[in-house]
Design goal:
single chain, 7 helices, 0% strand, globular
Length: 140
Amino acid sequence: MMKKIEVSTLILRLVLGVTFFVHGLVKFQGGIENIVGWFDSIGLPGVLAYGVASLEMVGGIALVVGLGSRIVSALFVLLMLGATVSAKLAGGFLGNGQGAGWELDLALLVMALFIAINDSKMFALDKVFFKGQNNQTQSL
């Protein structure tokens, strides 16, 4: 039973990591200036676009390799809450024909929340770097 949960959590961690990495990469490849402008247009500081895109890329890689999965996932939960409230909520769950809804944001938020709560140690660099702390973190 425990092995199934570990494998399932690994799959979630990998998919979430790749998804966020690609979203961050696209923001830079498509011209981060466009994202900065869009952030400004919805009333957010444009410079925040750099932080969001960087968190998505670096955090995505961190999840894939299993480094700081709980912390990164908690940051992704906050990111998805912010994206939903600031940009997507008004458009409805499935969107309004003019923009995307918040259903994907909710799915990513719940995936990240699951990893933040349960962690994911299978094939994770955390096991290598924080070997001696396993007993302490398991009780959290």
